[in-house]
Write a structure and sequence with these properties.
Distance between the termini: 101 Å
Number of helices: 4
Helix content: 10-25%
Structural class: alpha+beta
Order of helices and strands: HHEEEEEEEHEH
Strand content: 15-25%
Number of strands: 8
Amino acid sequence: MKNEKHWALAGLSVTMAIVISALMAACSSSVPDTGRGKPTATVNLATPADNPASASQAAPTPTDVWSALLQRTPFPFATPLPPPTRTILDGTYAKLDPKEGTPVPCRRCPDYKPEGGIWKLQLDNGVFRIYHQVTGWRSIASFTVSQDRIYLFNDPYCPDAVGAYKWKLESGTLTLEVIDDECAIHQRAVNLTSLPWLSCRPPNGEAAVTDHWQKPPGCL
């Protein structure tokens, strides 16, 4: 009797083993062969936008940085933002600082430090934007114009300072003369007044239509 039970249990175990083996073979046959015996890589189905780490990390171009700056607006640190009113100075300007040599990176260099290369300046409905193409340094602030004076404020590098300048705009050339400005240990004044700013606006309607005119560096 004991022998019959033993063989019955043994037969049941063999039958179960056969069934399990068959099920495993069936499951494995439904999976595409990706190289058995080799480690399989995890497939990431996220798009580059969903997974920035998988996208190429290209450095932003000067155009990218300038375009991003144009989307920003000042913060009213100590003075309310002026109304978005167009002024006689509104426009984009550029200058080419002739200093030679590559600026040395540093963490304690004064902001607005005049460096060689192209600088861009935009005055637009009460918003002041400035950008150095070589280093990528930029800033944004508020401004107002009263007769022949322009006032700068709400600059993140000197949120409590108000800069006052006398301006002159002739034949597309903007020159600034400092009256009082302590921003960035006076470096903002040095930067803004060291060279004239050339307008990126075409000199006449024909030049605007044909695009045949001598554009200042940085206006291309």
